[in-house]
Amino acid sequence: MRGLIAKLIGDVNQREIRKVKSMVERTNLFEEEIKALTTEALRAKTAEFRERLNIALGEQRQQLVELKAALPPNADALEQRELADAEKELFKAEQAALLELLPEAFAVVREAGCRVLRMRFGTFARGFCCGAGSGPQSAGNAPF
C-alpha cells in the first residue's frame, strides 16, 4: 500500500532532493569566483549583500513606514487590514530577495569555512547549510 502511495505522489526524500538540487547547482557556479577573492573582498561580501537587500527592498520598506505613519491610532479594520497586507507583501519580497542571495551567500560561507576552519561545508538542507563533518576529511563527504 505504501509503495503505491509513494508511486502516486512521489517519495518525500526525492521531492526534497529535487527542491535543493538547483540551489546546490547555483551555489557551485559561484565557487571559482569566490575562491579568487582576497580575504578582505570575502569579508566585504557581507556589506555587499546588505546593500543589495536594501536596494531590492528599500522602496517597499519605505512605503510600509509611510503607511504606518499615516495610520491613525484609532484605525478601523479596513485600515488595519491594509497595513497587514502591506506587511505580508514586504515579507514575501524579503523571502524572494533572500532566496536570490542564498546561493552566493552560501558559497561565501563555504569558502570562509575552507579558509578559517580548513573544512568544506557540504550539505544543503532546506535552504540552510549543515557541516558535512568535523574536520578536513569532511570535504570528501561533501556532495558538492
Largest sheet: 2 strands, antiparallel
Q: Give the % helix.
A: over 70%
Strand order of the largest sheet: 1-2
Q: What is the string of SSEs from the N terminus onward? A: HHHHHEE
Number of beta-strand segments: 2
Tell me the radius of gyration: 21 Å
First and last CA, distance: 35 Å
Shape type: flat
Q: Spans with pLDDT under 50 lasting ≥5 residues?
A: 125-144
What amount of the residues lies in strands? Answer: under 5%
* Structural classification: mainly alpha
Look at the structure and give the mean pLDDT.
82
Count the domains: 1
- DSSP helical segment count: 5
Overview in brief:
The chain is mainly alpha-helical. The protein contains five helices and two strands.
Topology:
Layout: H1 2-9, H2 12-29, H3 31-35, H4 39-70, H5 77-117, E1 123-125, E2 128-130
Antiparallel strand pairs: 1-2
Helix pairs in contact: 2-5, 4-5
Describe the model.
The protein has helices spanning 2-9, 12-29, 31-35, 39-70, 77-117, and strands at 123-125, 128-130. The protein has one domain (2-141). 72% of the residues lie in helices and 4% in strands. The chain is mostly helical and 144 residues long. α2 packs across α5 (77-117) and α4 (39-70) runs antiparallel to α5. Strands 1-2 form a two-stranded antiparallel sheet.
